[in-house]
Amino acid sequence: QWTTASIVDETVAAIREQIGDRRAICALSGGVDSAVAAALVHRAIGDQLTCVFVDHGLLRSGERAQVERDFVAATGVRLVTIDAVDRFLGALAGVTDPEEKRKIIGREFIRVFEQAARDLQAEAGAAGEQIDFLVQGTLYPDVVESGGGTGAANIKSHHNVGGLPDDLQFELVEPLRALFKDEVRRVGLELGLPETIVHRQPFPGPGLGIRIIGEVTAARLATLRAADSIAREELTAAGLDRDIWQCPVVLLADVRSVGVQGDGRTYGHPVVLRPVSSEDAMTADWTRLPYDVLERISTRITNEVADVNRVTLDVTSKPPGTIEWE
Ligand code: XMP
Q1: Residue 173 counted as an annotated binding residue
Q2: How far is the CA of 108 from the centre of ligand 1 (A)?
Q3: Which ligand 1 atom is at minimum distance from the Cα of 284?
Q4: pLDDT digits 0-9 by tens, 96-106
Q5: pLDDT of residue 169
Q6: Phi, psi of 225, deg, nearest 5
Q7: Is 323 in the pocket of ligand 1 (CB under 6 A)?
Q8: CA angle, 323 as apex, 319 and 326 as ends, to 5°?
Q9: Residue 107, SS3 per DSSP
Q10: 74-122 pLDDT, tens per residue?
Q11: Is the CB of 326 under 6 A from ligand 1?
Q12: How many C-beta neighbours within 10 Å does residue 135 have?
């Protein structure tokens, strides 16, 4: 009988065995997998672990604080945050093609992480030590899928920390390799991680960058972040978080629509709500959200978010639509 506590104990013992008194680094994304992997490794080796969080400016409202404040408070992990917002926005300037955006974000992420790893390596070297291990939150389904090759992975280029250069050769530590997502969440709760992280819905690595249809700019990110945060607040208040797989909010930044507000004409942008139900994200159905919830989200977004004067609902299943718009 595998209890969550025994999974934690066994995994922590195995990590100690693998790493011994050496050092490890881990990239945190704000998501549940990297957070739980890091928390397990931290429990095993304490401050021999350093976590790196790259803020690419494409996160949702409150997510940086969830990592920097809540995760650190819950675990005591040693965290280095790299503020790379300007760098990512610079690299994305003028880019509208979805695949190009994904490649740029993935490439910049790896470059920033590499530089952070080099800096930490130099710091360890000065103390006569070395970082030998890289922690990754690979789950059992990822292990199976990369062996199986369904082809679905090629529809969009997903990004993760892989393919590091020769001078950064790390041995991998993958404490979640035998676990499914629900077990990872239980382990996270057992380790005392905040609910906001443990039950976070899936969020793509390229973040809000692929939820702005058109060029990504700081102003558009602020608009989307505000709309997204209202949608999430209302879905949570309605108790719907566990019923939906995720609900991307998409800003149609290159589309404008005419509206009326007060006595005046507005000429703003539409956002799209994309609530989906799914088991594994390979297929999905659009979620039949209650009309009153839709109404509240729509009223609040059009009232509270300057620049957005229309809220639309995506009623496409996957296939033929993907969950994200880009
Ligand atoms: P699609 O849009 O392909 O999305 O139907 C399926 C699931 O994957 C998430 N997604 C990503 N996750 N890196 C990620 O870690 C990515 O580049 C990426 N692109 C999409 C998406 O949110 C959905 O849950």
Answers
A1: no
A2: 18
A3: 5
A4: 999 999 999 99
A5: 86
A6: -60, -40
A7: yes
A8: 105
A9: helix
A10: 999 999 999 999 999 999 999 999 999 999 999 999 999 999 999 999 9
A11: no
A12: 28
Q: Which residue's CA is the closest to the ligand 1 atom numbered 20?
A: 204
Over residues 206-264, the pLDDT tens digits come to 999 999 999 999 999 999 999 999 999 999 999 999 899 999 999 999 999 999 988 89
pTM for the whole thing? 0.93
Its ipTM equals 0.99
Domains, the chain: 4-198 (3.40.50.620), 211-313 (3.30.300.10)
Distance 49 CA to ligand 1 centre (A): 28
Give backbone dihedrals phi and psi of 260, rounded to 5 degrees, phi first: -135, 135
Nearest to 131 by CA among 247, 241, 215, 27: 27
d(CA 194, ligand 1 centre) in Å: 23
* 26, 38 contact by CB (below 8 A): yes
* Cis peptide, bond prior to residue 206, ω within 30 of zero: no
For 148, residues 6+ apart whose C-beta sits below 8 A from its C-beta are none
